[in-house]
Amino acid sequence: MRAAIFEKPGLENLKVIDNAVKPKISEHDVLIRIKVTGVNPIDHFVVSGALPKVNPFPHIPGAESSGIVEEVGSHVNTNNLKKGDRVVVHNKVFDGTCDMCLHGLDMLCRNGGLIGAITNGGFAEYIAVPEGNVFKIPDDMDWALAASLPVTSLTPYHALKDASLKINEYLLVLGASGSTGMIAVQLGKKMGAIVIAVSKHSWIKNDFGADYIITDYDKVIEKVKEITNGKMADVVINSLGVNTWDTSFGSVGINGRWVAFGGLTGAEVQLNVQSLYSKQIKLIGSTGGTRKELQELVNTSSKQLKVRVWKKFKLEDVKEALQALFAKERDGRILLDVA
Ligand SMILES: [Zn+2]
User: Fold this and answer.
1) Least enclosed by CB within 10 Å: which of 23, 38, 141, 285?
2) Could you check whether the bond before residue 41 is cis, i.e. omega within 30 degrees of 0?
3) If you average pLDDT over every residue of the chain, what do you get?
4) CA distance 45 to 330
5) Ligand 1 centre and the CA of 85: distance in Å?
6) What does pTM read for this prediction?
């Protein structure tokens, strides 16, 4: 089969071949013919070697897959899965037996990891995954959205739920026109919040429903104060890392929640503990989401969520796709059109 594959870490070692071994399925697995995959920073980390524990080698990356069921194992009985079903892949390996899994927190499985990192991923014609990772999607869902559910949508959805976002609260989203940011804005609106987007791109307000937009990162605290009449934000999402730490933490109001699921510009920050306890601020780390939450997203997202696609690359242009992640002019999602 065709696949993007590398034998040792480094973007320069990633190549597309026609004779990769087609994965075999066991009794409880599902073989999926890939249609479209999301391209995310995690894929870049896998290929570049920034992520330890990549396995197996040679390795096929790709953490966010959508496609069509090609074959089901003899013992598969999840949701009557059958050949031809349109599906997305929950990208977490989990054992179903550890204490985290028993709590329903399968993305925190003590014996787990990421599909596409500790297993081969979806930058290939086919992927084989356990039946518990396969979720059917509606016929009318477009592939761009499908390939944006398992990582790009699930991550901010879980984060907003973990931050207990409530109706009429102020939600501040930094990096609002990024992949997860544009979804956080839409989900924040659906959850009843007043959404303040920090972005240079006006479409996040005009097309994606943000109530306010702040275009200047230097004026975020001042503008949030103005918009909220001095109360500041109830929930702040900042996955941009150290560069925006001061701005984001300074925008959290009394009893507010600060939440991150990434740290793009670096992870080491200085925390003023007095501000933290005197305002009773909660710092929340968030990673991925549960299978239940992915099912909730699938159930509600077909007509109610959208993604702005900046560029769609063919599989053979996978290197350019990964490089484009960090392009200054980037303005929306990057996808790989595999089929
Ligand atoms: Zn587990």
Assistant:
1) 285
2) no
3) 96
4) 19
5) 27
6) 0.96
